Amino acid sequence: MPQDLSAVDWPVRTERLSIRPATADDLDPTWAYRRLPEVGEWLHRLVRDRDEYAGLFAEPDRFAATLVVERDGAVVGDLMLRIESPWAQEEVADRARGRQAELGWVIAPEHAGQGYATEAAATLLRVCFEPLGLHRVTALCFADNVASWRIMERLGMRREAHNVRESLHRTRGWLDGYGYALLAEEWRDRQVG
């Protein structure tokens, strides 16, 4: 079942960026950077063939939404938004359904270092907590992916887990993994304060 993002008025704009659900026209612009080894280093799946990527792009993970990040009409990156249900006891499971999300981000290397990932992810947090009304947002990464966990910390997310050698990297072997999270009330308190 695809993610229901109908509560959001797309595109969502920041001072410098525009964020919207991906379309078929975004295949080549995203392939241009996702095929690069330095981008694939930390991604869940390394796709080396455009046709394979095209198939995945046409049928993305049915449990996640791909959002495109644009600057002045050009694609500079993409975001993953996976709305999910946290663990709940059976009697209250219906109240937990779809109340949590996992985020992910990729910025094209030529646009890295300009704060786009932080700006886009901060906006996606707002989308999660305001129009989508979620309770909690998480993000995961390899501990060695310093750029990613620094973004999580800049966003005010709290490191909830440091899992020792629990993540198997395709070339680096077993690595530590980090899990970060932020609650809606924590996010709201930071907006007021």
TrEMBL record:
InterPro entries linked: Acyl_CoA_acyltransferase, GNAT_dom, N-acetyltransferase
Gene3D superfamilies for this protein: 3.40.630.30
Any coiled-coil regions, as ranges: none
GO molecular function: acyltransferase activity, transferring groups other than amino-acyl groups
A Pfam family annotated for this UniProt entry: Acetyltransf_3
Domain of life from the UniProt record: Bacteria
Domain N-acetyltransferase: 17-185
Keyword Transferase: yes
Keywords tagged on the record: Transferase
Protein name as annotated: RimJ/RimL family protein N-acetyltransferase
Organism of this sequence: Nocardioides soli
Lineage of the species this protein comes from: Bacteria, Bacillati, Actinomycetota, Actinomycetes, Propionibacteriales
